[in-house]
Amino acid sequence: MNKSDEIRKSIHELTREYFQTKFESQPFIPGKTKVNYAGRIFDEMELINLVDSSLDFWLTEGRYSEQFSEKIADFLGVEYVLLTNSGSSANLLSFAALTSEKLGEKRLKPGDEVISVAAGFPATVTPIIQYGMVPVFVDVQIPTYNIDIEMLKKGISAKTRCIFIAHTLGNPFDLDEVLKIANEHNLWIIEDNCDSFGSKYNGKYTGTFGHLSTISFYPAHHITTGEGGAVVTNNALLAGIVRAFRDWGRDCYCAGGENNTCGKRFTQKFGDLPVGYDHKYVYSEVGYNLKMTEMQAAVGVAQMDKLELFCEKRIENFKKHYKIFSKYPQYFILPEATYKADPAWFSFIITIKKDVPFTRDQFTKFLDEHLIETRNLFAGNLTKQPAFINKPYRIAQNLDTTDYIMNNTFFMGTYPGMDDSRFDFIDSVLEKFISRFNQK
Asked: Is 370 a catalytic residue?
């Protein structure tokens, strides 16, 4: 072991000690400690990897990036994983890839229609608009909160070319039916798997059914790298196109710091460039720079070792929420898994029933006053959001359920940091709120 290796080892040991001192867990104090809806769960290994990566000072994709993408690929059983700087960028890259001229007549073009939902997160829809296409909003169903299949069928038109939807809060949409419809109409499928990394449908992981899928590693998600995401596919052509869009539009696939991987760097002809123009500076797509950093990937490597445990804990916490809220069936609609689905629940989603003596906002305000965090189902109804009001879109039939969700639905945390003391507190606060109405 040379001197630098000895120092590195010492730094690792000090980092472990630092973690134990700095991040020592604090006791939960009811009414004083916030009950978060999400949070980072990590141990000394994330910190050690992060510091170890910084010592290499290889700041762009390197050995940790390779390990991280390989771990994701092994977990999902897929061929290609392309790391990005966020889940939203992963959505953008997936959609952008389908506009590539390399796909010939199958490529998406301005004016094409893309099936999506309005009861979701904007990053699933914004790429559709940004590339000059028309989102077709289909309503969802309660209590799965996923796309209404019958409305989806009626929403298909001669202009429909793609289905781009998310598995809602970890609960897979009906993949059997969506795949059947896509095959019947020769449609692309992008699975937004950002909230569902680790969920299964019919025994198979979500994110492995569509032509492309996306993952987010934002702190609220199943694993985190802070910011970060990934595009997943089994299609070599699509993987190459995504890589090009991600890396400035560059045609070359050499990793950072590598040259002439293909052995043809100075011998090919592209576009109107002279023969032999340096392939590292040939651009086949109008792209971006949306890569992940090496230090983010270093954190992801350690997080992947915990993913299965995290998913198990989310499922347990979902059941604990269910037990608490099921005491009051007259007030709440509780979530249900899609048939054939085994969700690694992102959260516990609840809808206030009609004709009850309180509103969603009154209840969530009460929880907030007791330091219990909640969130609405993201944008509620995207067509009502300021950014989307004057944008082109089409509604398939109606968005009645989406509107009800906008006004009556919220979710609470299932993340692995939840423990029995927090659930006991939630139980007591809920009982306190409901007792106001049971006495009348």
From this structure: no
If we measure between CA atoms, which residue out of 420, 417, 426, 421 comes closest to residue 325? 426
The SS3 assignment for 92 reads: helix
- In the DSSP assignment, the letter for residue 337 is P
89: tokens are 């960028």
* CB-based contact 389:414 (threshold 8 Å): no
Alpha carbon distances (Å) from 402 to 11, 152, 395: 52, 14, 12
Contact 378, 120 (CB under 8 A): yes
Give yes or no for residue 256 having a pLDDT over 80.
Answer: no
- Global confidence as pTM: 0.95
Any idea which residue has 């730094």 for tokens?
Answer: 11
Contact 399, 137 (CB under 8 A): yes
Tell me if 282 sits within 8 A of 250, measured CB to CB. Answer: yes
Alpha helices in 131-235 (DSSP H): 149-155, 175-185
In the predicted model, what is the mean pLDDT of residues 343-354?
98
Query: What is the pairing mode between strands 188-192 and 160-166?
Result: parallel
Instruction: Please give the C-alpha separations between residue 150 and each of 8, 47, 125, 290, in angstroms, as whole numbers.
Output: 59, 48, 21, 37
Following DSSP, what letter does each residue of 234-284 receive, concatenated? S-HHHHHHHHHHHBTTBS--PPTT---TTS-TTT---TTSPTT--GGG-B-
Q: How confident is the model over 306-346, as pLDDT tens digits? A: 999 999 999 999 999 999 999 999 999 999 999 999 999 99
Which helix H or strand E contains 16, and what residues bound it? helix 3-22
**Can you read off the two tokens belonging to residue 262?**
């293909």
CB 250 within 8 A of CB 279: no
Domains of the chain: 1-248+285-440 (3.40.640.10), 250-283 (no CATH)
Is there a contact between 210 and 181 (Cβ–Cβ < 8 Å)?
Answer: no
| Burial class of residue 87 (count of CB atoms within 10 Å of its CB; 0-12, 13-18, 19+) | buried
Selected catalytic residue, list 167, 221, 279, 321? 221
